[in-house]
């Protein structure tokens, strides 16, 4: 198995040992899924049974897919990068034969695979049994949905890595992380579908990579957008992947040039 495959497999096994945390995550995801679903149902009911193109069943699907995807896409386990920059340990990382970004990306994929299977699928099954799900009518939607999910994880990883790499220039990145997470949760469409936003906020959201992290994979996996339209959304994800990969690489290169480690 290539080095990156072994790294991904090791990350999968590492997170599989956290059984209590996994059980707690399933419970929390399920509870918050019901809370989010009830809020969205109330909003749609007040609007007369449909809001922004979402029916009750489509809203339920949106909620449970969002709960399933949040843990794999969010930035669990990557804060160590900023810590290693501040501690100077990043200098050792840069001497390894495996590229720093690809190393952490492999870890992200392994971690995301476990979180999707262990913490994402169970709440989705509960949601399917309790509220029902709107499933795609065209088989191609499942294929495109899987591709969109991989790209969503990639985009989220690159954006988060840029927040971590800001540690080269900032003494403390926790404030930046809090702002980033709050912005991501809002503009990605996790809290509510971005089509429910007022026009000015919708325009802002679509000008950022955040909808590519949550809104796009949900719309594609649920079949809410047909395959032809989904291809366009996937194209946007690919574009953001390229832009953010270049930006993250540029930040890493600039940061390593300015890196100073006390005593050496």
What does this structure look like?
The protein is 73% helix and 0% strand. The protein has helices at residues 3-16, 19-46, 56-73, 80-87, 90-93, 100-130, 139-165, 174-187, 199-206, 215-222, 227-258. The radius of gyration is 19 Å and the shape is globular. The protein has 11 helices and no strands. It is an all-alpha fold. The mean pLDDT is 87.
Question: What's the helix and strand layout?
Answer:
Blueprint: H1 3-16, H2 19-46, H3 56-73, H4 80-87, H5 90-93, H6 100-130, H7 139-165, H8 174-187, H9 199-206, H10 215-222, H11 227-258
Choose one word for the global shape: globular
Question: Percent of residues in helical segments?
Answer: over 70%
Helix-strand string:
HHHHHHHHHHH
Mean pLDDT: 87
Write down how many β-strands occur, each being a DSSP E stretch of 2 or more residues: 0
**Model regions low in confidence, pLDDT < 50 over at least 5 residues:** none
Backbone CA Rg: 19 Å
Question: What is the straight-line distance between the termini?
Answer: 36 Å
Proportion of residues in extended strands: under 5%
The description of the largest β-sheet is: none
Helical segment count = 11
Structural class by secondary-structure content:
mainly alpha
- Quaternary assembly: single chain
Name the features:
264 residues, mainly alpha, 11 helices
Quickly describe the structure:
With 264 residues, the chain is mainly α. 73% of the residues lie in helices and 0% in strands. The relative contact order is 0.14.
